[in-house]
Amino acid sequence: MSALNAANLQRVLSADTSAGSLKVHELANYALAGATPLAILSSPGSLIQKGTDMVLAVAIPAHMHITMNACVTDYLPKAARGPARYFLLGTSTITFLGLMKLNLISGPGITESIRGLWYRPKKDGPTPTVKK
Question: Is residue 63 annotated as involved in ligand binding?
Fold first, then answer.
């Protein structure tokens, strides 16, 4: 691994202390504050909703990663921080990939998935009866 790659990895692993990541955290806060009302008010399948879903798919893992790194710094002993930060990087990456998959490949998107929690699934056909 080159020195440049090692330095970048170190900045990502300790995202709560590097100056650039604090700016990313601030931008993620603004993105979440703006995208949440848009997601609620947008019509299903609209271009606004699709764009909002993409913003959420980037902002949620970025915000989570930086904030959880601050928790690692505050609450874990120094010996446990390194493994915890690698685990957190993996978790953040999997979260990002899962949200992108939900948006692009095999799902209705983040907004429609959340909206679906408030609706009962539609049943196709009559309700089965149990014979005694």
Answer: yes
